[in-house]
Amino acid sequence: MKNDKIEGLAIFGATPAFSEKLHVGRPNIGDRSRLLERLNKILDDRWLTNNGPCVQEFEKRIAELVGVRHCVVMCNATIALEIVIRALGLKGEVIVPSFTFIATAHALQWQEITPVFCDIDPQTHNLDPARVEQMLTSRTTGIIGVHLWGRACNIEGLTEICRKHGLRLMFDAAHAFGCSHQGRMIGGFGDAEIFSFHATKFFNSFEGGAVVTNDDQLADRIRLMKNFGFAGYDNVSHIGTNGKMSEVSAAMGLNGLESLDDFIGVNHRNYNQYCDELGGIPGISVMNYNDAEKCNYQYIVLEVDRETTQVTRDQILEILWAENVLARRYFYPGCHRMEPYRSRFPRAGLSLMETERLADRVLVLPNGTAVGPNEISQLCEILKFIIANGELVRDALARDAQCQKVG
Ligand code: T4K
Q1: CB of 298 closer than 6 A to ligand 1?
Q2: Which long-range contacts (CB under 8 A, 24 or more apart) does 287-295 make?
Q3: What is the pTM of this model?
Q4: How far is the centre of ligand 1, averaged over its atoms, from the C-alpha of 101 (Å)?
Q5: What CA–CA distance (Å, rounded) separates 316 from 330?
Q6: How far is the CA of 201 from the centre of ligand 1 (A)?
Q7: pLDDT tens, 214-272?
Q8: Angle CA 141–146–149, to nearest 5
C-alpha cells in the first residue's frame, strides 16, 4: 500500500499499485526457442493439419501421461464435449452443475439436449450426488460431472448412480489436466473425460482440447466424428464435424508438456504464498488443494464472507481492477442465470441455493508464470488492507456512488 489511508487505493484516485495489468489467465509459454524450432519444422515439412506428426505424438504423450488407452486431441474442449455427448448417444435430459463455465451446458443445448442444473456441495464446489439422484427423470440419459478447479468431483457417487440407473457418465475435466483422484490420474474415469488446452489454462496449445477414454469403440467413433466421418479417402461412414487440432497447436502442446512440471511448480509455489499471506484473515478463505493428490494448482479461489468483511466480493473486485489486478468472478452468475437457460428455467435458482451462494462469494486471483512473489505480496497487502478497513472502505465507496449519482 502506498500509505495506510484509504485514499491510497486507486479506486479513490491514487496511482494503481501495478503499472501493468495482472491477469488471471496469462498463458504459460515454455521454451520459446524449442517451440520456434518445432514451428519451423512444420513449415519446412508443409504438413499443417489433418492428423499430422505433431498431433500423433501429442496424443501418444497425453495417453501415456494420463494412463488411458486413447487420446483424441481436438480444436477446443467445447467441440470435444459436443462430440462425446453425440458419440455416447445422449439425448433428452442430462444432469450438469450450473456452477461451471457455460460451455458445459451449451455443448448439450447446442444439440437440443436439456441441461438439468443440479446443485453443488459447498465444500467441494462440485456436483452433490444426493441432489443428482433427486433430479433424475425418465428422460435422463446421462451425467456430466465437472472437476471444477482441478479437484475431482465425487466420481464414486456419480458412478454408482449411473450404474444403478443405466446412465452414461462423462466428465468435463477442462480444469483437471495433470490432476489425480485417489492416486489415479483424472482422465481415466467414466465413459470419457475432456481436457481443455485453451490459452488461459495452465497448460495450453493456443486453443485445444482432448478426449481421453479406455473405450475402444467410443474412441473409434469420436475419431470419425471429429473428421467429418471420413473412414478413408472418399468414404464417409458417419455424420461428423471438423474438430481437428492443427499442427501448430499440437507443437505448442508438445512444448508445454516438456515444461509441465515447471508450470505446476510455479503454480504450487504461488498457491502456498497466497495461503501463507491470506491465511487467518477473518472473512476470506483460500480454497485448499489436497497435497496428497497430484494437482495443477491453477486456480487461486478466494471466498469472501461479506458479513465479516463488510465489503462485498464485487466491491473487492472493483478495488482490485482499479489497481490493475484483473481478478475474476468465475463462474458468476451460474449457467442457469445466463441465456437461454434463464428464460427457459426461470425458477431453477430455487433448487440451486448453494450455487447461487457460492457464485456471490468467489473471486479468482492471478496465478502462473507471469506472476511473481513480489506481485503476490503486493496484491495480498491490498486485500489485507481492504479487509482490515472494511467499514471505512464500504462507507467511502457508498459516498463515491452517491456523489456520482448527484453529479
Ligand atoms: N469446461 C470448463 C469447465 C471450462 O472452464 C472451459 C473453458 C470449457 C469447458 C471450454 O474449454 P475451451 O472450449 O475454451 O477449450 C476463459 C477461457 O476462454 C475458457 O477456455 C475457460 N474455460 C474459462 C474458464 O476462461 P474468459 O471469458 O475468462 O476469457 P478471457 O478472454 O476473459 O481471458 C481470461 C484472462 O486471461 C483475461 O484477463 C485475459 C487473459 N488472457 C487471455 C487470453 C486468451 C491472456 O493474458 N492471454 C490470452 O491469450 O474464458
Answers
A1: no
A2: 287/125, 287/149, 289/150, 289/151, 290/151, 293/152, 293/179, 293/180, 293/181, 293/182, 293/183, 294/178, 294/179, 294/180, 294/185, 295/150, 295/151, 295/178, 295/179, 295/180, 295/264, 295/268
A3: 0.97
A4: 9
A5: 14
A6: 7
A7: 999 999 999 999 999 999 999 999 999 999 999 999 999 999 999 999 999 999 999 99
A8: 175
